[in-house]
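Q: Here's a chain of 403 amino acids. Please give me its 3D structure as C-alpha cells.
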Amino acid sequence: MMASGFALFDTAIGRCGIAWGGHGVAGVQLPEAGEPETRARMLQRFPAAEEMPPPPEIEQAIERIVALLCGASSDLSAVALDMDHVPAFHRRVYEIARTIPPGMTLSYGDIAARVGAPGAARAVGQALGRNPFPIVVPCHRVLAAGGKIGGFSAQGGVITKRHMLAIEGAKLNGAKPLLDGGGVFDFDQGLAVEHLRAADPVLARVIDTIGPFRMQLRPAPSVFAALAESIVYQQLNGKAAAAIFARLSALFPRGLTSGRLLRTSEEKLRGVGLSRSKLLSLRDLAQKAEDGGIPTFGEIQSMADATIIERLSEVRGIGRWTAEMLLMFRLGRPDVLPVDDYGVRKGFAIAFDKSELPSPKELAAYGARWQPYRTVASWFLWRVVQQATGRKAMPLGPAKEEP
C-alpha cells in the first residue's frame, strides 16, 4: 500500500503510528516494544513514506484515536481509508467491522454471515489478522465463537486486545465489563484458595467465615492514569479524593495523558483542589512518562513485580505501597503482600488473636507460607477488618504518606 507520509503519536496504550496517502489513511500501527521498533515497523510497511507532521485531516484522525484509547466517546467511522489495494473480501469484512460501536463485539461467524459468506469465519479471521488499519477498523472488537477472546497479531497479543476492550467497557457473554488484564486473574482462584487452606489452618478458618474470594480488578486506560489517580487519593478520604480526581479528569475531556498534564498551567491544576505536594508528584510522574520511565500497559505485563516496584518508586509521591496496589488491583498479580498496609496488619492481628499489630518484618516472615498467592491472603485479611468493624477496609494504606 502506497503512502506519502507517516507520523508517530502517543496514546494510552503506547506510541502508535499512522501513514497516509492521497486517498486517506494508508495504515495504522499499534505500539511495538518501544518507539524505535514502532518507527522501524512503519518504515518496513511504508518504505516510500517520509516521517513528517500530519496534514489536518490526519491530525483529526489521530485526535479521535487518542480520545478513544483514553476511554472517551470518539467516532472513527468518518475517517477516510485508502483501500485501493485491499482485496474485495477483506474490504467487505473491514466495512462490517467498522460498524461495531465501542463497547460491543461481534464474532467472526457474525461477520461472515453479514458479508454473505456463512461458514467463512476462518477467512474473516485471516482478513482481520491482516488488517492494515487497527483501531480505525476495530478488529479488537471481533471475538471467536462462544465469546472467547480469539487471537490478536499486535504486540502483546491477547493482552493488548483485552486492554483495548477494557478501555471501551466491552462485555463478554453478558459478563461484567472487562477490566485491565481482561477483568479476570491469570491464575486459578479456586486453586489459590485451596492452597491457602492447606498452608495455614488459621487462614482456612478465615476463608470459611468470609466466603468466596471476590476481589475485583479496577479499570484504567493506562499505567500513567492509574498512578495519577493513586497520587490524588493518597491521604484523603474516598469522597474528597473522588471529587478532586473527577475535577482533574474534567480538564481533559479527551483523556488524562502525561503530555496534556504537562501542558496545563499550575493555576488550573491547583484549581481542582490539588495540594502543592500532589501537583509536584503528578508533574514528576508525567515527565517520567514522557521520558519513557513509566512503562506502558503492554510493557508492564512482562515485568517482574520487584522491577515494577523499583521503577515506579523513582517517582515523587509513589512508594512501595502504591506500586503494590497497582500490582494487585490493576494488574491482578497473585503474590503481593503489602506488609506496610495497616489493614492487612490489623486483619492479621484479629485473625490470629494478637494484642498488637505485627511488624512488617514479622508479617513478611509468616506470610512466606502463603506463597505464591499472597495477594489472595491479603484480600481475606482486609475482609477480616471489614467484618470486625462494619466498614470498608481495603486497602487502608501505609502508616505514613509515601515519599
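Q: Can you summarize the key feature?
A: Residues 173-182, 399-403 have pLDDT under 50 and may be disordered.
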